[in-house]
Design goal:
single chain, six-stranded parallel beta sheet
């Protein structure tokens, strides 16, 4: 199911039809939210569902279908409660009994525990067997869980949604329960998350969906070719590049634009489906954070702010606009620029928008360097997801010279140069960005606002007489970069230790070295931000 083709709707319909035929279905997905989505839709179709998993990890609207909730509503729950209360009573007696009495009481306790387990097993088997569809994550459906109460050949079909994002080994935890399976997903979108380089090199980064598609091709693959989300121009690039030119836009979305929304003016931005703002040759180089991994691009951030401002001024609802960028540091930079004025606007990584859609998407690719390095932007699946979140409008801000060093990104740039409204960053700055009266927060003002409290903390540290000061792990990449700039300007030695969310920045006085592990450093608090996105 390529983006916007109604994959989950189709999956739910398939499950509902199987249930109507009397088939017993085990359905799963790698994320709890995807499982809950299936439960909600199946329940609306009148299908008897039981959701396996901890209720705390479920949506409130789904919890009534959880196994725990069904057990509590059953007539047998009162008997189970009575047995449990009797066990508690015996346990209390054991603590007060003499050594001679304890043996008898322990025997009684074991008998009650066996009775409880037998009654629970019988009740669970009855509830699960009565359901047409049992749903959960693959781990929740493993043989060591409640599924063990059912006969080994109980299920007829296993359905795995979002199979392109599921580890193959996780899929097999569910697949062993039935002789037939249906895998639903898209291996051209986000892959399974594998943090081990060795495991990925060994093949675990390849999903079962992709492996099956490669091995069997059209013998087992059914492509949903009609998409109901994107303007046909937005659809055309992924269709040509990834889906063999097979995607077709439904007439209801084929030509829709932002200007067609109620209350939206017809402007040069709302009248086009795709905009490419090219920063090549405009001196808008990327910068790195304190960790030398995360990256930002002030020039691109400024252009994104200006474009969002123009869209909102034309009447596009803020909630209908999404901003996607691959790097944490750029996410933080854009939030600093936009979130105060537009608190409802979503600024996230590609992962944060998976499965989502917006009327307008603004995409900042960040990378701009003389070496043509694009990092993990080379993962074409992430770019596919980013571009295809847009329904009516997508604006891509990038350095075409840098990103075109990657063959997949080059196809996007070339497509947009041929089919999008192409603007140079220089012209964009001249016509929009320099008119700060139209912008919600001037970039320098936002930067100054972030710098001020950090400068005050450093000045307070110098006045305190302490040898060192450590900023906590909650300090964001953007804040660490600003602290680094302040320390350089103030002549303060500083160093970072740790990785990821455990990274800490230590600052010393100008006349003192930075200790590797200061015994009693002064500590300072910085506001914790949501760490969304990739490195």
């Amino acid at each position: 199911g390529p983006p916007g083709t109604g994959k989950t709707t189709t999956v739910v319909e398939v499950i509902a039809q199987l249930a109507a035929q009397g088939k017993r279905v085990l359905a799963c997905a790698p994320s709890n939210i995807a499982v809950d989505n299936m439960v909600e839709r199946l329940a609306r179709c009148g299908v008897r569902c039981v959701r396996i998993g901890h209720p705390a990890r479920m949506l409130d609207t789904v919890s009534k279908y959880s196994l725990d909730a069904v057990v509590n509503r059953s007539e047998s729950s009162a008997i189970l409660a009575a047995v449990t209360a009797e066990m508690d009573s015996v346990r209390k007696k054991i603590s007060r009994a003499t050594s001679r009495e304890r043996d008898a009481l322990r025997g009684e306790y074991r008998t009650l525990r066996q009775e409880l387990r037998a009654r629970e097993g019988k009740l669970l088997k009855s509830i699960l067997a009565d359901a047409s569809v049992v749903l959960g994550t693959p781990v929740g459906l493993s043989t060591g869980g409640v599924i063990r109460h059912l006969d080994q050949e109980h299920f007829d079909v296993v359905v795995v949604d979002e199979a392109g994002q599921a580890l193959e080994i996780a899929c097999w935890m569910a697949l062993i329960h039935a002789p037939r399976c249906i895998l639903a997903g898209d291996h051209w979108q986000l892959p399974p998350t594998v943090t081990s380089v060795k495991a990925a090199a060994g093949g675990l980064a390849l999903s079962l969906l992709e492996r099956a598609a490669q091995k069997f091709g059209d013998r087992c693959v059914k492509l949903l070719a009609t998409q109901y989300r994107m303007h046909h121009t937005i659809m055309e690039w992924p269709s040509q590049h990834l889906y063999r030119g097979l995607l077709v836009a439904d007439p209801s979305v084929e030509h829709h634009l932002l200007r067609d929304l109620p209350g939206v003016e017809d402007t040069e931005d709302t009248a086009v489906a795709m905009v490419l703002v090219d920063t090549a040759g405009c001196n808008m180089a990327e910068t790195t954070g304190d960790d030398d991994v995360s990256r930002a691009n002030d020039g691109e951030a400024t252009i994104v702010v200006a474009h969002v401002t123009a869209l909102v001024a034309a009447g596009v609802p803020v909630r209908s606009i999404g901003i996607i960028t691959p790097y944490n540091l750029q996410v933080e930079r854009l939030r600093a620029l936009l979130s105060e004025t537009y608190p409802e606007i979503e600024i996230k990584s590609v992962d944060g928008f998976q499965g989502r859609e917006m009327e307008a998407i603004v995409l900042s690719l960040v990378r701009s360097n003389d070496d043509g390095q694009v990092g993990f932007l080379a993962d074409y699946r992430r770019i596919n997801v980013a571009v295809t979140r847009a329904r009516r409008h997508v604006a891509v801000v990038c350095d075409s010279d840098t990103v075109s060093h990657d063959p997949h990104l080059r196809t996007l740039v070339e497509f947009m140069q041929a089919h999008a409204d192409v603007r140079t960053a220089e012209a964009f700055v001249d016509t929009v960005v320099r008119d700060y009266s139209k912008m919600p927060v001037p970039p320098e003002a936002a930067r100054a606002k972030e710098l001020k409290p950090l400068r005050l903390k450093l000045e307070a540290f110098l006045a305190s007489g302490a040898a060192t000061m450590t900023f906590p792990a909650s300090t964001t990449s953007y804040q660490r970069m600003l602290i680094h700039e302040l320390c350089e300007a103030m002549g303060l030695p500083h160093s970072s230790e740790g990785e990821g969310t455990d990274r800490r920045l230590t600052v010393a006085r100008g006349d003192a070295p930075v200790a590797a592990a200061p015994a009693a450093p002064a500590r300072v608090d910085t506001p914790a931000n949501d760490h969304a996105g990739q490195p």
